[in-house]
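fyi for ur records
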Amino acid sequence: MDSHIPHTPKIGHHRRARLILFCLLLGSATADAGTLGEAIDSALDLEGQRARVGALRDEGEATRRQAASLVAGDPGLRVKHLSDQATANEGAYEWEAMVELPLWMPGQRTARQAVAAALGGQAETLAGLLRWEMAGRVREAVWNARLTQGRVDQAALALANARALATTVDKRLAAGDLARVDALVAHQAVLDREAEHQSARMEAEEALARYRHLTGQATLPDDSEEATPQNLTDQLPPDHPLLREADSAVGVARRQRDQARSERAGHPVLSLGTTVARDARGADQNTALQLELSIPFGLASQSAPSIAAAERVYTEQAGERQRLLRQAEAELIAAHLGRRGAAEALAIAERRQEAAREAFALVRRAFELGEADLTTRLRAEDSAREANVALELRRLEQGRARARLNQALGVIPQ
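which gave:
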């Protein structure tokens, strides 16, 4: 008799493409991650997000240098020439050269220095925000990979049990205890478990490939099992990266609004230079020093648009800060509920697995004694297998729930 029915699963074009992608990513992966913090650092480097922090620091430093300058704007050179060549042509002329220096009004330099300090602070909070956001993406990628690997482990165990059962059925068939249809059913169960195992492996490989593409790391971090946060609270911590960055953005907008108000009168311009003049040919040339001071009127109608624009930006940032606060609070509530739900689901899965295990043990014993048929045994085994898979996934989901709660609380792995 045929005790084994060969079966080669067909892999479609889309599955071949996924395998090729996985192999490419595997070839480009670097050394092991080691820790979750190192994986986050690697992911940040790959995406180049840290350049945003450097650009913001450069903007703050440029504003600081501008505020430290002796002049309030770019100096200019003004040259003027007068001549009677086109009229009387008596040789009279006048040359005037002036250097124009914009001056600071009281409070303007201080306002720009405050903007520079606010931009520097925002650069620091942006670095924390980018790391926190990447931590959330890495955490999800890690736990997606671990959950899919859990399904692979359970599928492999189910496949081993199905093959062992098929071997037992073959022996009993040879001894005349079972019919050939029982052997066919047993080997069909092996094929079903092989298909499930192959599908689970593909999902696990895809999840690991996504993690490798995100972080550039070859394997999952060793410390992905995060501890439950100490001093657990339902309130957002004041140093939450999202709120700190939002506060910084509001602070920058406030300082820029103050700057717009301080510069509503514009900048006085001090002009220093010399004048060289001659009344006629042969006359002596006269040279004189010249000093001018130009003071703008500072009409409210002229400065109103810039002040209104700065006020609008401040209002938008304040509103965005409130929106982000509400969003973070909702995510924290969801994380708490998810953690509690995961714990309750685990308790149920443990009771279900225990009941299914006991039932399967009884049915298996009855099958060995010839008191139950193969269909009943396979049905009990399927129930026990599903309960084992559910229990394993519920255990893994405890770790994911803790990671999501840490993420909602603003905890960043170092």
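Residues 300-368 form the longest helix (69 residues). thats all i got for now
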